[in-house]
Structures are given as structure tokens and as C-alpha cells.
Amino acid sequence: MARPDLVVLIPESTRKRSGGPSGPPGEDAVAGSLPVAVRQKLEGLRAEVLKKSPPGSVEAGQFLPAYQRFDGNMYRSIPQEAWESRAPGVEVLIASALRGLIASRDLIPSYELSMAEPVPPFGKLNRWWHAAGLPEILHAFLLAAQPKAVVDLLSLEYRESVAGYQERLSGISVKPIDFPGMGRASQPARGEKVAEILRTGSA
Predict the structure, then answer these.
(1) CB–CB of 92/8 below 8 Å?
(2) 24-76 confidence digits (pLDDT tens)
(3) How many other C-beta atoms are found inside a 10 Å radius of the C-beta of residue 19?
(4) Is the peptide bond before 121 cis (omega within 30 degrees of 0)?
(5) Residue 14: left (phi > 0), alpha (psi -120 to 50), or beta?
(6) In a domain, 173, yes or no
(7) Does 1 map to a domain?
(8) Residue 79 lies in a domain
(9) In what order do the strands lie in the sheet with 100-103?
């Protein structure tokens, strides 16, 4: 992955498209950018979620880019052309119940998991990922990628999964954007903001 100038953090969506081409998933931009020990930790946590999730939770063997896989109201408010003609230097990271963190272009399967919902035997996966070290993994990614800025568009449950990542990020500004009082209406507004950043390269 080319070194980004701006990293945007967004949540996955509960609603996901099914299907997609079969074959190997290809590049893993997040894991591939991490120091070896941190990459191994992330891969181990991903394997644990995959192994222990309820049967049928993951539609194995068929892959779509993450930005096409997710189909919630936020993603429906981001036009395809914004994703495909994004400004250079913009990378979008997605907090994912299945994978922890994924880049928007990475190929992923469909899955029936959410950070915001209890999943046996984990409990709420945002809390499980946080306790397992997802903040440190995101911190390591940002230190390796060295963007100039991070725009944090995570919703509450997803921000809880990585809480603390922004500590000791010398030289990298972090800008959280919230939508107070909007409730469910915040999702389209969040998507419109993502589209704006993809098009302009700035927040």
C-alpha cells in the first residue's frame, strides 16, 4: 500500500451484500503494513474470530472489495465513483467485527457479525476486540503508514473498539467528527462526509 497522506476511519455495516467472485483474497493492506509481531497478533485474532463464530456466520470463498461488500445507509450514501476516483493519498480503514481492521479495497467475504451486537462466545465484539489489543494494532499501523492526518468518523460502538489508539501519535493529527443528536440519520451524513473526503482529499 502506498503511504497515505490522510487516513479515514469508518465502521462496517450490519447489512452486507452476499456473493462475489471466488478465489484467493489477495492483498491485505492493513496486515501487510504492520511490523511482523503486530501482524502475527492481528492474524491470530482474526483466526480466533473465524474459528469461534457461530456456524454459518461467514460466507467463505467469495470475495468483494470491502467498500462494495458493505451495504448499510452510510455506504449507500457514498457513490461508487467517489470510491473509484478517490483523491490520491486517501486511505479508508474500516473497523470490522470479523477482521478487526481492513482497508476499503481489500477483498473480504460476506459475514453476519457486527461490533455492536453480542456474538457468542465473545460477548459484544467491540469490547472483545478492544481488550484483545485492536487500539495497539491501529496505533502500529498509523506509526508505520505515517499519514499527516486521521479523520475519525467511527460511530460510538466502533470507536470503543479502538479507544486509545490516538495516544502518542507524534506528528499525526487526529480529527474526530461526530453527529450529535442525529441518531440513525447520522449514517447518511457520515457517508456524505466520506464521499466529500474521497473527492477532495481533505476533511
Answers:
(1) yes
(2) 777 899 999 999 999 999 999 999 999 999 999 999 889 999 999 999 999 99
(3) 12
(4) yes
(5) alpha
(6) yes
(7) no
(8) yes
(9) 100-103, 90-96, 6-11, 149-152, 173-176
- What does the radius of gyration of the chain's CA atoms come to, in whole angstroms? 16
What's the pLDDT tens digit per position in 101-136?
999 999 999 999 999 999 999 999 999 999 999 999
* Enclosing domain of residue 103: 6-200
Count of domains observed in the chain: 1
Return mean pLDDT, the chain: 94
> Cell 455506504, residue?
75
The set of long-range contacts for 173-182, using a CB threshold of 8 Å and a minimum separation of 24, is 173/148, 173/149, 174/149, 174/150, 175/149, 175/150, 175/151, 175/203, 176/152, 177/151, 177/152, 177/153, 177/203
**Cα gap 28→106, rounded to integer Å:** 6
Nearest-angstrom CA–CA distance, 130 and 123: 12
